[in-house]
Amino acid sequence: MRTEKQIPTVPLNRFIKHSLEILKNPLPFHRKNFNEKGDVFRLKIGFKNEVFFIRDSKFAQYVLQKNQRNYVKSKIQTEDLVKYVGEGLLTSEGEKWKKQRKMLQPAFHKKQLENLLNGMQDTIISEYACIESNKTIDLFPVLNDLAFQTVVKSLFTKAASGKDMERLQFITEANQRMLVKELRQPYLAWWFNISGTLKKHLELSKEARTILKGIVEERKVSGKRYDDLLDMLLETRYDDGKGMTEEQLIDEILIIFTAGHETTSNALTFTFQLLAMHPEWQDKICKEHSKIKEQTDDLMTLVMSSKVCQQVIEESMRLYPPAYFIDRVNIAEDHFDGMTFEPGSNLLFSVYEMHRHPDLWQQPESFLPERFSEGGRQFSSQYFPFGAGPRKCIGNNFAMFEMIIAISELISKYKILPGFETIEITPLITLKPKNAFLKFEERP
User: What is the end-to-end Cα distance of the chain in Å, rounded?
Assistant: First the structure.
């Protein structure tokens, strides 16, 4: 006979009382609830609506891996985000997702990505040209442009105009801000509709699709081959030998733009801030980079050999995971650790809290890259910077390669000094940095 465990509840009046704080930064509110209620609690967000907040890593493994067939993503991604970016790999479900994942996976294998590394490096070096020595700047806008341009060049090589790319970047970021408003202020849905605000942003999405269709058509007509991601996407085939429709191709490109640049720019910014606070790790990265460069000029070898740099990135993403929540909804009733979840329960796994859980990590609030000296696999049951299971981020290798090159290039040229007191965050769709002011001194 199953013993039923009661799940602690945070009442609606407490949610309403703290709604303004939650709008600005929900993380302190959630941490207080976790500390008071335990690793699973129920938050009432309406008279009928509720969300289960979870920082139990075993529960996350169960949902994301062991019983993943019983779970789908929430309407945030399968409905709210779809209207801006379409039904691509990130937002699709069921058979369509399986079909897309199987077809796209080869394009993101390490061997295929090797073709993109020199273009990545050229783009990164070009973007760093704007950094002046002995001057304090907010590094996030620089890294945001860097990450966007890296995705652009990896997708399109030289086939896209600067004006079109500027417009795409504007649209991508404007629509992300709009989605945050919709999610954080659902009570204003009526105003977004009658004021025309929502319509304006949906028109921006149409404009983005038109720009991308033009680029794709130009590539097809030109007959030229660049060995970039667009070529790979155009050449991929389903089991029946057919390629993607134009609409599906545009959906996937929009997903790559949305998921592929902001998470990386966030992670890079937090990493450089942590390095500014821990200069001994800058020196270790610099020494490692110099030693590898003495032995080889091969970029893939450099990336794969940069173990210290990878440790630093892994630890940075533990403390500041860009995708700081993972959401799932169960299809059928489910049970875990004596708790029962009715069909359609909204489960929100706090990656941020799991990565700082005192039962899972020694000195959880401290920056200790040495904990990853044997790699991240030893922590696979509690460490989810790219998610886990079949829906683990398909671009994880792309992101890691890009970040290793970006960090190695900057640290080999500059010593970084902090121009901030503490690391500030802005939790939106992703965990964003705030006031990341840094100063750069040229290395001798």
Answer: 71
